[in-house]
Write a structure and sequence with these properties.
Elements lengths: L5 E11 L3 H11 L10 H7 L5 E12 L2 E11 L7 H9 L8 E7 L2 H5 L7 H9 L6 E5 L8 H13 L4 E3 L12 H19 L4 E5 L7 H11 L3 E5 H4 L1 H9 L7 E4 L4 H4 L5 E2 L1 H12 L3 E5 L9 H12 L8 E5 L7 H8 L4 E4 L1 H4 L5 H16 L4 H4 L4 H10 L5
Parallel strand pairs: 4-10, 5-6, 5-13, 6-7, 7-8, 8-9, 9-11, 11-12
Antiparallel strand pairs: 1-3, 1-4, 2-3
Amino acid sequence: MADERFVLATYELEDEEKALKKRADGIAVGLTVGSWTDLPAAQQERMQPYCGRVEDITVLERLGEGRVRARITIGYPVVNFPARIPALLTTVFGKLSMDGRIRLVRLELPPAFVGAFPGPKFGAAGVREILGVQGRPLLMSIFKSCIGMPLDALVAAFTEQALGGADLIKDDEIFFNESIAPPEARVQAYRDAARRTEEETGQKVLYAVNLTGPVTQLRDRARRLSELGAGALLINAFAYGLDVVQALAEDPEVTVPLMAHPAVAGAMYAAPGYGISAAILFGQLLRLAGADIVIYPSPYGTVTLEANEGREVLGHLREDNGLKPALPAPSAGIHPGLVPLLVRDYGVDVIVNAGGGIHGHPGGARAGGRAFVAAIRAVMDRRPLAEAAGESPELAAAIEKWGVKEA
């Protein structure tokens, strides 16, 4: 970052090569002061500190008939917007997002601007400290078959997952129905169940409750769930809005980690040539907003993120920018046979996050969790999973069902 006064936004777009300079100038002016050449000289002088500027234009590919694929970088004065993500996004990609084939691929933020955001309240180290677990990946189980289930059945399912060795158990992000087992009741019941399983196993387990309700009530509910003993708060960050995440992270009465789910984000990053890169959404913005744990697609599950972009997400979650690093939870289609790849690609500070890989185990959820525990232990001991399966019937059954991919 050469100039602390500017946020630099880089776009990839398609246009006629001869029109690139005019296009870039139009973005720089249009998303800041609105107009320039028609302003009187005195007004131009007053508006100068607020006007965007073109930093770079690079042709990436010539497409024929004078059209090109290009990168344009625009500098936006930091003085134009506060350290709030809606203000940042509206400035750098608001109406521009509707201007044809254009994609926001990079944001360079001045350190002082980054430092004005809360960032993760706990971060990777803080979550580990709560759990008392160091030196290995964490295991998270996703609650499945929960909608419409009575509380006693849910407690029984929670107990099975906890006894399987899960460090965290999270709600399904689609669990909004409160007619039978509202969040407050689940938190209290699972809190008591977690105490019982901890007495039996010696292992602590955190329950991530889905934070739901009208957006105007979320902060009060988050405080209440924290007080009742929630282990973490699961928030559908892009459905509710990143500013909601930031408000929760800034609230001293929200005293548990925030876990961000990527639901709806595919509408923002998945179309080639349009939208915002996943690295910005999952890596930069969620960490700025204050997510302690970030769930996003892995490169080898059922819903995948391209490997290079996944590495960029991880880099943003961990980069040395003054904020606490967030824990990655690569997801979708994770089974015990993928643990070697997870540790290879993400290191030890990763959450192994599984739904079907636990509940779909032939022996049930408890056996599914134990299969993951055995796989994690084997990888940390640098043993092949096939060898470890000889000592773990649960892991052997998982490998027979899903296979194994050694690093």
